[in-house]
């Protein structure tokens, strides 16, 4: 609970406009509405998400429609073994 929404509007506003935000840890750490707003408004350059909340995101979620956001199907931990 102490990390839910850890990255929100305030944190995205403090980042450089050239920043690329990557989340491979836990979906609930990110306020996805704030992330979408930061991407749309140019507060940050791009985002890559391997985890979301909920997981998977609904097919019509706005993050899928943003050209500067890549959402992967939670495979960052996949290995050949």
Features:
alpha/beta; three-stranded parallel sheet; 2 helices; 3 strands
Characterise this structure.
The protein is α/β, with parallel strands linked by helices and 81 residues long. The chain is built from two helices and three strands. It has helices at 9-14, 32-41; strands spanning 20-23, 46-49, 69-71. It has a three-stranded parallel sheet with strand order 1-2-3, with no helix packed on it. β1 (20-23), α2 and β2 form a beta-alpha-beta unit. The model has no long low-confidence stretch (mean pLDDT 94).
Mean pLDDT: 94
Global shape: globular
Give the low-pLDDT segments. none
Helix content: 10-25%
Topology:
Blueprint: H1 9-14, E1 20-23, H2 32-41, E2 46-49, E3 69-71
Parallel strand pairs: 1-2, 2-3
Task: Provide a compact summary of the structure.
The chain has about 80 residues and is α/β, with parallel strands linked by helices. The protein contains two helices and three strands, in the order αβαββ. The protein has helices at about 10-15, 30-40; strands spanning about 20-25, 45-50, 70.
């Amino acid at each position: 609970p102490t990390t839910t929404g850890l990255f929100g509007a305030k944190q995205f506003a403090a980042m450089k406009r050239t920043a690329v935000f990557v989340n491979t840890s836990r979906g609930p750490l990110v306020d996805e509405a704030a992330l979408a707003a930061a991407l749309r408004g140019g507060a940050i350059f791009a985002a890559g998400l391997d985890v979301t909340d909920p997981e998977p995101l609904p097919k019509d979620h706005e993050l899928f429609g943003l050209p500067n956001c890549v959402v992967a199907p939670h495979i960052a931990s996949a290995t050949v073994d």
